[in-house]
Specification:
Layout (H helix, E strand, L loop, with lengths): L1 H19 L4 H7 L5 E5 L6 H17 L3 E5 L6 H10 L6 E6 H6 L11 H4 E16 L8 H10 L5 E4 L5 H13 L4 E4 L3 H10 L4 E5 L4 H5 L4 E5 L25 E9 L4 H15 L2 H8 L4 E2 L4 H22 L5
Parallel strand pairs: 1-2, 1-3, 5-6, 5-7
Antiparallel strand pairs: 3-9, 4-7, 4-8, 4-9, 4-10
Helix pairs in contact: 3-11
Keywords: Signal
Family: Belongs to the UPF0065 (bug) family.
Protein name: Tripartite tricarboxylate transporter substrate binding protein
Length: 330
């Protein structure tokens, strides 16, 4: 009986010690998330990145059982919002950022100081979508097609303006690609985001801009703008009447803008895996995909490693394009 009691006391003591041990990473991940999350969009509200982020945030909230708040922190071509997540927020998975090829792969070659290093300070979770850029003309302009524009630009070098979401972003660089391919010179007018530039194209303040396809599909169909060409290797199923630049003799004008979700580097691997699992399930869901695809988004998903590999590849590839454009930012 005494031996039995001793064994029982030893067992109880062992159980008590187990309860006092710190939680393992796996058990900590099981308890995550226990409070609301934030998805930072480093661009103005109302743009194509913001629209997808809000749809993704709503769906992710339902799967995680916690609110996902979208926080627009625009500025410096996406640097401000990304730097805030990369350097000022804890590496706990509660704050995410929607990054793109523009601020993650192009900006390192533009800015002497970005406030963060995309490859060192951020951890990719999954790609979310890609979309081509397109050349957009106002309905009041005389440009019915790209040939009209090229002829006018050759007649008046540097006189025809085109807008973009800002210096050095993909819209601007698509314009540089077109200038080089067509041997013309246009006047670049940078805006603080795509929506105000598009408003000025529709209002006649500027004649042209390069923009993301999803932002202009509805406007083109309503006659509010003319989409003259698609910077892709194939025509858009939503705008089958619009040729690619390659079809028009400018095969070098191709810009597919990818986006994806990242967290601060150092976020525990189980939390990154959980976020990836839930987001991939959302991104592969037909109910989530179809409304976005109907607007011109190509919805994607990936592993964290696939996203990392693409980021490294495009960071190296964009160096030449930025040098060719002769762009530098402070």
């Amino acid at each position: 009986m005494l031996k039995t009691r001793r064994r029982l006391h030893a067992l109880l003591a062992s159980l008590c010690l187990t309860c006092l041990l710190p939680a393992t990473p796996a058990s900590a991940a099981d308890a995550w998330p226990s409070r609301p999350l934030t998805l930072v969009v480093p661009y103005p509200a109302g743009g194509v990145a913001d629209q997808l982020a809000r749809a993704l945030g709503n769906a992710l909230s339902q799967r995680l059982g916690q609110p996902v708040l979208v926080d627009n922190r625009a500025g410096a071509n996406g640097n401000l919002g990304a730097a805030w997540v990369a350097r000022q927020q804890p590496a706990d998975g509660y704050t995410m950022v929607l990054g793109s090829v523009s601020n993650l792969a192009i900006n390192p070659h533009l800015y002497t100081s970005m406030g963060y290093d995309p490859l060192q300070d951020l951890q990719p979770v999954t790609l979310t979508h890609t979309m081509p850029n397109v050349l957009v003309a106002g309905p009041q302009t005389p440009y019915k097609n790209v040939a009209d524009l090229v002829a006018a630009a050759k007649a008046k070098p540097g006189a025809i303006a085109f807008g973009s979401a800002g210096n050095g972003n993909t819209m601007h660089l698509t314009g540089v690609q077109f200038e080089n391919a067509a041997d013309v010179r246009l006047l670049h007018v940078p805006y603080k985001g795509g929506p105000p530039a598009l408003q000025d194209v529709m209002g006649g303040q500027i004649p042209l801009m390069f923009h993301n396809l999803p932002a202009v599909v509805t406007m083109h169909k309503a006659g509010k703008v003319r989409v003259l060409a698609v910077a892709d290797t194939k025509r858009s199923l939503l705008l089958p009447d619009v040729p690619t630049f390659a079809e028009l003799g400018y095969p070098g004008v191709v810009t597919n803008v990818w986006n994806g979700v990242l967290v601060r580097h150092g976020t525990p691997a189980p939390i990154v895996a959980r976020l990836n699992k839930e987001m991939v399930a959302i991104l592969q869901s037909p109910g989530f995909r179809k409304p976005l695809e109907d607007q011109g988004y190509e919805v994607l998903s990936s592993t964290p490693q696939q996203f990392t590999d693409l980021l490294k590849k495009d960071t190296a590839a964009m160096a030449g394009l930025v040098r060719q454009a002769g762009l530098t930012m402070q």
